[in-house]
């Protein structure tokens, strides 16, 4: 499974008064992230992270500052463009199998991940009938055989 790391490895922004990481999740203790940052939210954390303007746009991944200006804003990872409301199409929602799927994003309506050849299931987590060898993908196979 894909592991989400707060701020993608960068240090979260601290609250100047307490020294604790700024919390941008739900509830009365929620902090607003400063303009030069974004809220990186997942099921296990909600941290204000510095913008990294050096990120390169490729596939569905863009710089944090530009995904915030798209219709559905950013996914919880702060860099992938959400393809629907409520983080539709985002890696944390899709949970595409890292061996069986081509990428970590999925269809915003069906949550179907884009599977490699011979691989099936919504999350691309199993071989289609008549195929085998999902674990062999990590050794160079293009899909199930």
Automatic annotation (TrEMBL):
Its main location: secreted. Disulfide bonds join 94-106, 96-113, 115-124. Keywords: Basement membrane, Disulfide bond, Extracellular matrix, Glycoprotein, Laminin EGF-like domain, Repeat, Secreted, Signal. Residues 94-145 form the Laminin EGF-like domain. CDD domains: EGF_Lam. It comes from the Eukaryota. One of its GO terms (cellular component) is basement membrane. It is found in: Secreted, Extracellular space, Extracellular matrix, Basement membrane. This is Laminin EGF-like domain-containing protein. It comes from Meganyctiphanes norvegica (Northern krill). The lineage of its organism: Eukaryota, Metazoa, Ecdysozoa, Arthropoda, Crustacea.
